[in-house]
Amino acid sequence: MKSNNFFLFLIPALIWGSTWYVITFQLGKVDPILSVSYRFLISGVILLAYCGIKKLGLKFSFRQHMFMILQGLLLFGCNYWLVYISETYISSALVAIAFSTLVFMNIIFNALILKNKIKKQVIYGAILGVIGTIFIFQQELQALTFEDETFLGLVLCLSGVLFASLGNITSAFNQGKKLPVIQTNTFGMLYGGAMMMIIALIMGKPIAFDTSNSYLISLAYLSIFGSIIAFSTYLTLLGKIGADKGAYVIVVVPIIALTISTIFEGYHVTLSAVFGMSLIILGNVLALRKR
User: Fold this and answer.
1) What sign does the CA torsion over 64, 66, 69, 75 have?
2) What does the alpha-carbon distance between residue 157 and residue 151 come to, in Å, rounded to a whole number?
3) Which of 69, 79, 108, 230 sits CB 3.0–4.6 Å from 12 for a disulfide?
4) Among 78, 114, 278, which Cα is nearest to 191's?
5) pLDDT, tens only, 47-62
6) How far apart are CA 224 and CA 230, in angstroms?
7) Where are the beta strands (DSSP E) in the chain?
8) Rounded distance between C-alpha atoms, residue 24 and residue 34, angstroms
């Protein structure tokens, strides 16, 4: 993997590894769908201003806008809405495990929709990565039951992963049609945020906003770093190495999340966690290496 691709891989992994913890500060007074709407509307407006300053082209055909709307709804709307809700039922650790299945979904949809060949080393790497994640969070998995809200949270999260994967494929398709990443993200985030607001109004959700420092700072971090910077680098990586390999960023994220949990939440590293992290790193090397 070229050095440029390495940084495109590392940046979203580091940022998204921290967002699992930061999202918890968004839960409480404001309905999750509104927090998602605020996040991506803010990100979209900032990117729109950036495009204006840099004089980037913003004229696209109706058909191109339709695909941007699809990307926004899948990747910057429904995906995060379901993830935010799921974190009210289950721990961020279980969410990280569920999201590691994005690798498999991307491999399948990459083959079915984009007609790309499934690479064996990517499958082997993904399997090692998911097994490693399970080892890291085995205590949470052992406590999982299907008789309470935990099961509902897991179903919601997996549904969010499905939307995220389809959003990844849509982005890869858009890049294949030579649509620029920055402008596509700009409109995608604006469309995604706007549609979440419309859905919230249709559902009769009370419009609310939290002015506490924790909510405002976490919202700013998620909007700028978690959305603009992370998605721009990640979707650029998808365009370069494919949706199947690019999705492996999501499998590495739990390592970062684990480190942050150790520092801020008192998580105690166990032997199984160390073994799991080793499997993730090995799977990462295997999935991303050239033949």
Assistant:
1) negative
2) 10
3) 230
4) 78
5) 999 999 999 999 999 9
6) 8
7) none
8) 14
Report whether 46 contacts 228 (CB < 8 A).
yes
And the tokens for 251?
């499998």
Q: Does residue 135 register a pLDDT over 70?
A: yes
For the whole model, what pTM was predicted? 0.84
Dist CA 40 CA 20 (whole Å)? 17
Report d(CA 76, CA 190) in Å as an integer: 9
H/E/C letters for each residue in 145-192? CCCCHHHHHHHHHHHHHHHHHHHHHHHHHHHHCCCCHHHHHHHHHHHH
Taking only the tens place, the pLDDT of each residue in 16-34 is: 888 878 998 998 899 999 9
Residue with tokens 């990517």: 122
DSSP state of 269: P
With a CB cutoff of 8 Å and minimum separation 6, the contacts of 76 are 40, 167, 188, 189, 191, 192, 193, 227, 231
**pLDDT band of 291, cuts 50, 70, 90:** low
What are phi and psi for residue 209, nearest 5 degrees? -145, 140
